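Page 37, continued from 36.
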């Protein structure tokens, strides 16, 4: 049986990354916009990753009841800035686009560079939750963006105990360490979908 997932996101960078991760796990996927066009999602909370990701997945699953819908909600917590970012990471950094990574680096200048990145994933179908997953990554922020692709957090996230950013890792290493890859694998395993992939 061929497994296909629909990505519930209006973020083109996140959608492209999720599609690529799923392909690495042997699963086809596409943006929900291929079927519905761009929709406005319900307002997100400022307190709960899990509630936010469930809301997105359920919203699209009710509009595409025959599809398996995958959503993600991610954020970063900085030791140097307690009470900031976290669940509202994208909203707090939005005013600094496209230079939000550089702004985050100014937030930790002269302070601890340690971070915790968390990604929550949910698969839903026809208005019901099928499974939820979690992926985390801890480490230290690089002092400047590194690697070929400077669009996204990966250019400054150095995993604990390593010297390279996620951007500088091989694809296999990236899949092993990256928070979103871990969260996707976790939810696929819990939903029983890794058995259908080339990596089960």
């Amino acid at each position: 049986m061929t497994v296909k997932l629909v990505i519930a996101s209006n973020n083109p960078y996140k959608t492209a990354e999720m599609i690529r991760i799923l392909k690495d796990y042997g699963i086809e996927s596409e943006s929900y916009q291929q079927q519905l066009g761009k929709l406005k999602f319900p307002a997100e909370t400022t307190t709960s990753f899990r509630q936010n990701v469930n809301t997105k997945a359920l919203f699209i699953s009710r509009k595409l009841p025959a599809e398996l819908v995958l959503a993600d909600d991610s954020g970063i917590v900085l030791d140097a800035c307690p009470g900031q970012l976290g669940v509202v990471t994208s909203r707090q950094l939005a005013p600094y686009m496209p230079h939000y990574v550089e702004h985050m680096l100014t937030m930790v200048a002269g302070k601890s560079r340690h971070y915790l990145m968390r990604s929550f994933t949910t698969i839903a179908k026809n208005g019901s939750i099928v499974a939820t997953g979690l992926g985390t990554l801890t480490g230290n922020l690089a002092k400047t963006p590194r690697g070929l692709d400077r669009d996204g957090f990966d250019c400054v996230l150095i995993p604990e105990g390593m010297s390279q950013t996620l951007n500088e890792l091989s694809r296999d290493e990236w899949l092993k360490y990256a928070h979103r890859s871990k969260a996707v694998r976790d939810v696929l395993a819990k939903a029983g979908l890794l058995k259908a992939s080339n990596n089960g």
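The chain is about 30% helix and 25% strand. Flag for discussion at group meeting. The longest strand covers residues 128-141.
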